[in-house]
Amino acid sequence: MANQNQCHFTGRIGKLDIRYTQDKAPIIAFSLAISKSRKDNSGQWIDDTTWINCKAFKQIAEYINNHAQKGTFVRITTAYQENKWTDKSGQQRISPEFLVNAVEILGNRKEKKSQASQDRLNMPTTNPIHQADFEDENIPF
Questions:
Q1: What is the Cα–Cα distance from 6 to 17, expressed in whole angstroms?
Q2: What kind and span of H or E run contains 3?
Q3: pLDDT tens-digit readout, 17-30
Q4: What do you get for the CA distance between the two ends of the chain, in Å?
Q5: pTM summary value
């Protein structure tokens, strides 16, 4: 049976935060801005932006860390997950999170360094990077 927990998003990366597990496996957390434009009652265009929280592991995390930055335009395939916890006041809290299974870099607003742009020219960005062996027991939370 096909995986039914699958979401596709196209947007710009916001804040990036990379960490490493005890066995040096990378985990990158980032926000993704998803925008849509619409006309208001007066005919003016308005941009509506929604921010989502994403996490990537291992090869995908390394790829994002090496080839993306704040403002990078990407297309991602994710799985939806909810984090549940109890806050200090005893309230149950839920925050949605999207676990990245594939990423495709569509473009950058600016280049990190001239060397990075040289490397990027030789890197095929039209083929998405997939997390082939995504296993829940490897996720450190």
A1: 23
A2: none
A3: 999 999 999 999 99
A4: 27
A5: 0.71
Which tokens hold the place of 100?
């990245």
Length of the chain: 141
Tracing tokens 């927990």 back to the chain, one arrives at 5
**Cα–Cα nearest to 32, from 95, 100, 83, 85:** 100
DSSP state, residue 38: E
Tokens found for residue 131: 């997390």
Alpha-helical regions (H) of the chain: 58-67, 114-122
Place of tokens 């921010």: 51
Write the pLDDT tens digit of every residue in 72-129: 999 999 999 998 999 999 999 999 999 999 999 998 765 544 444 444 444 444 455 5
Cα distance between residue 133 and residue 67, in whole Å: 22
Q: How confident is the model at residue 130 (pLDDT cuts 50, 70, 90)?
A: low
Which amino acid appears at position 101 of this protein? N
Residue located via tokens 């979401």: 7
